[in-house]
Amino acid sequence: MDFNVRKLAADAGIFFSRAVQFTEEKLGQAEKTELDTHFENLLSRADCTKNWTEKIYRQTEVVLQPNPGARIEEFLFEKLDRKVPPRPTNGEILGQFMLEAAKEFGPGTPYGSTLIKVGDCQRRLGGAEREFLQTSSISFLTPLRNFLEGDWRTISVSLTLLWYRFARDSDASKNVVLLAERAETPGESAVPDFQETRPCHYVLSASASALWNEELDKAEHELCVAQTEFDRQAEVTRLLLEGISSTHVNHLCCLCEFVEVQAMYYSQCHKYMQELQKELGRRSPHSLEVNSHPAGSPTDPSAFLPLNSPSPLETDTLQIEEVQPPASGTRKAKVLYDYDAADSSELSLRADELITVYTVPGMDSDWLIGERGNQKGTVPVTYLELLS
């Protein structure tokens, strides 16, 4: 390994000079390079972008993966450049448990058959969630992370070079030249120490004057070089800071895509739940399907029905056309969601419409009789908002 003592000493001297210059600037004893207002605005905007992007990125991670242990695991796999092992979502696990429970309870029982339907729906919801998490991570989280670990890191390096190398060198050269100019100007208080003790009639010799002029020329040349390097680095940094506008445009597109993916995910979940509600709704009093068992046996279907629910025989004889509204007890209801009738005994609904509802003795509490003009049929209570 090469060990250059001269280079090490030179670098140490430069570092010490910059530290002294920085300290003097903080104490107000030396000039500091000031940048134009436009550059300062760009710098402030970039710093604001970095801070808020970091907060949005961290919170989005929490929303997509609330489990901190899972987030740490994914972070470690990413740093080790290894693929994250597939992990089932909570919905998929719940669905699997329900399906396994249905096998134990018996798929032919009302509870078992319902567990199969709900468990299958939960598995589909879990699959939709996994797809949403993967798509959101690629379309939204990855661009934010690329900015923080890529573009912003480049900007930070450029700013570090600008402030702690070129600016310090330029400021130090300016102060050397300023000190030399003050030494040549009579009546200045800031003169070299040797002038404070020399006689007033003392005149520099020709060789000393030439040496002083040579040092002044050298300082001015170093100032010119330092100022040129500072201006070049400032221009590079300015271009990087102006690129923040492009970053905002890119993040805007990613944000819109994230919203689209999220809306699609919730729409898909809503669709699955509506389908599940329809499947479970077919077990209403007028269309409940039960296994035929001898009456009074332990598997008698009446054991699985609510107390206020009619027997299958009664539901078969219930004719919607013959049901008359009671003299009192009718109410208005607002429809919350669209509902397509499963058969002719049900009434299709459209969101936000108003209908008249009432109940009749022996009906399941989850269903009501709904009327809209000349149309009549049973409607699920969960789709309605009862009005006073």
UniProtKB/TrEMBL annotation:
Domain SH3: 328-388
Principal location class: cytoplasm
SUPFAM superfamilies according to UniProt: BAR/IMD domain-like, SH3-domain
Gene3D superfamilies xrefs: Arfaptin homology (AH) domain/BAR domain, SH3 Domains
PROSITE patterns named among the record's database cross-references: BAR, SH3
Compartments where located: Cytoplasm
Keyword Transport: no
Region Disordered: start-end pairs: 283-311
Pfam family, one: BAR
Protein family according to the UniProt entry: Belongs to the endophilin family.
Quaternary structure (record): Homodimer, and heterodimer with SH3GLB1.
Name listed for the protein in its UniProt record: Endophilin-B2
Gene name of this polypeptide: sh3glb2a
